[in-house]
Specification:
This protein is α+β, with helices and mostly antiparallel strands. The chain has 14 helices and 18 strands. Helix 2 crosses helix 4 and helix 11 packs antiparallel against helix 14. The protein is rod-shaped and about 175 Å long.
Length: 585
């Protein structure tokens, strides 16, 4: 019973020891992306049917943040988001949001060749932990594997000594680190809005995914996506439809409402171009960088078209403004803010993509937990010992129950036997007597019959007692009138084959006129046989009837007292078991 417990415990330990790489989530079929930028909320809903994805709705509305409230307070933002969704009559369901580029640290890492995601995650965590400006327990890290860099020159030929060897290229990954408190901020915002937040991505990566879906640049192209905000410009490099570089730059703050303008449109454009140049210099310092073949502008500042013309003229490459309307299956709710929907589109599509192709700071890819094999072995030994102890305890309890049941049954039998002990002893004594009688192999009825025939008439002798012993001895108690009768009886018994011991005769007068009593011991030999057919019974006169005078004779008159009975009468009596051994009525 208890020994079977060792099987599930051992199987559980074995499963925990096996390092299995499982996907962190299944692909979703429908999602709603929420993007908060510059006091506005962009909502994009997307659905997936197999490998086909469609953007079914876009809406944009200003967040109703109360005057004087902190616009970064998650409770205030959550209530404002909930109000906008109610106004737009949108049921979001599963929601995905994105972290701003300024809140994330990005690194492109070149790692040793690896195939398993757990191995890559372990190397990424080890490499990034040395460059973090804050403690590792305050960070959440996720990564995505980048496509391999195709070198222009052919790979070197393997040495002739090892013709079968192959050169393994390193693994390139894009790692993103965000503070834990940032993730907590978005979670609190979702709770305040009553939303189910299932993923938290990166807006820069989402912009690259949206660009790939809206314009589908050809494979192998290296383009730059410039996203304009009120106070920042984000420069992202997309190669082979994957984000390989990202940088955020600051712009002069916009004047408050009603205040005189402090910057002109030309100054804003010049600041944007300056940040783009700085970003290009930073990009050219990365490993494996390629020439930028085009620029895409996105944003809602209104200066995107002018910036595109300046960049095209300065760098001599094509530059155009992203048009997300080509990817929508339905008309957008707010056409004026449609150009700012690119990050929301990318967030929705990234949530529908396989987990390995996007960032998710709610469910980051983690390295395998290091196994303490010594501790695991100890736990296995403890589990095995516990299973044995439970098995022994179970068997002991089972045996104790059996013994308790047997003891109860025996106690009942002992109580019943104690109650009937006297009867049992009597039966045993009687059985022992019967067995001894039977073991003697004597036909005592024949001896009694023979003795009844050999005894003299009752006028001379009558029998008072008869007893037997285990030594084949019969003892006769007699009352006789004279000693000659005893001698004559002894001679007849010897002639019949019995061994007669000398009788003891003592005077003892009774009321019937018998003057002596004698005890006669007869030893029955082993080989003696009684042939009753040869026995001759002496004829005996019937006893005289007793009259009152005979019962009380007059003095001086000789009184004739009949004996205890004739031999025939004694013979008949001896044949009845209840009168066996009795001589007189």
């Amino acid at each position: 019973m208890g020994l079977d417990l060792a099987k599930p415990i051992a199987s559980s330990v074995a499963r925990r020891l096996q390092p299995v790489d499982r996907p962190q989530r299944q692909r979703r079929s429908q999602v709603t992306a929420l993007d908060l930028e510059g006091g506005w909320l962009h909502v994009v809903q997307a659905v997936a049917r197999g490998d086909q994805m469609r953007l079914v709705r876009h809406a944009a509305a200003a967040l109703p943040v109360p005057a004087g409230a902190d616009p970064e307070d998650p409770l205030v933002l959550g209530q404002a988001v909930a109000a906008v969704l109610r106004e737009l009559a949108i049921r979001p369901g599963q929601v995905v949001m994105g972290v701003r580029r300024a809140q994330v640290m990005l690194r492109t890492l070149s790692l040793p060749p690896a195939q398993r995601p757990s191995e890559i995650a372990a190397m990424v965590h080890f490499q990034i932990s040395r460059d973090l400006p804050f403690r590792l327990d305050e960070a959440l890290l996720d990564f995505k594997v980048l496509p391999l860099i195709e070198s222009a020159s052919p790979p070197p030929t393997p040495p002739a000594a090892n013709p079968g060897a192959a050169t393994d290229q390193p693994t390139r990954v894009l790692a993103a680190v965000v503070r834990r408190q940032t993730v907590v901020h978005y979670q609190a915002l979702a709770r305040a809005a009553g939303l189910k937040l299932v993923a938290l991505g990166l807006r820069s990566l989402a912009g690259a995914r949206g660009l790939e879906f809206c314009h589908r640049p050809s494979a192998g192209r290296c383009v730059a996506l410039v996203s304009l905000r009120e106070s920042e410009v984000i420069f992202d490099v997309v190669r082979d439809r994957a984000l390989v570089f990202s940088r955020v730059g600051t712009l002069p703050a916009a004047p408050a409402a009603g205040a005189p303008p402090e910057r002109s449109a030309d100054e804003v454009i010049e600041s944007v171009v300056l940040e783009v140049v700085r970003s290009l210099h930073s990009y050219e310092g990365t490993e494996g960088h390629e020439h930028i073949e085009g620029f895409f502008l996105a944003g809602t500042t209104g200066a995107e078209a002018q910036v595109a013309q300046v960049l095209s003229g300065r760098f001599g490459v094509a530059a155009q403004v992203v048009n997300p309307a080509v990817a929508l299956t339905e008309a957008a709710t707010n056409q004026a803010r449609l150009n700012g929907a690119l990050p929301a589109i990318g967030l929705a599509l990234g949530a529908l993509d396989p987990p390995a192709s996007s960032f998710d700071f709610l469910n980051p890819k983690r390295p395998p937990v290091p196994r303490d094999l010594r501790r695991v072995r100890r736990l296995g030994m403890v589990a095995g010992a516990l299973a044995v102890v439970l098995g022994v305890a179970g068997l002991r309890a089972h045996w104790i129950r059996q013994r308790e049941q047997q003891r109860a049954e025996l106690q009942q039998q002992i109580a019943l036997a104690t109650k009937n002990l006297a009867a049992y002893r009597l039966v045993r004594s009687q059985a022992r007597t019967v067995l001894d009688w039977s073991a003697a192999s004597r036909n005592w009825l024949d001896h009694l019959t023979l003795l009844s025939a050999l005894l003299p008439p009752s006028q001379e002798l009558y029998l008072t007692t008869i007893s037997s012993s285990t030594r084949n001895t019969l003892t006769l108690g007699l009352r006789v009138r004279s000693g000659e009768t005893v001698d004559r009886l002894s001679a007849a018994l010897r002639a019949a084959g019995y061994e007669v011991k000398a009788p003891g005769i003592t005077p003892a007068t009774d009321r019937y006129g018998y003057r002596f009593q004698a005890n006669l011991d007869l030893v029955v030999p082993e080989g003696v046989t009684n042939d009753l057919d040869q026995v001759v019974v002496e004829a005996r006169p019937p006893p005289a009837s007793r009259s009152p005078q005979m019962r009380n004779p007059p003095p001086g008159t000789e009184r004739v007292v009949p004996g205890p009975g004739t031999a025939d009468e004694r013979l008949r009596r001896n044949r009845r078991p209840r009168d066996r051994g009795e001589g007189d009525e």
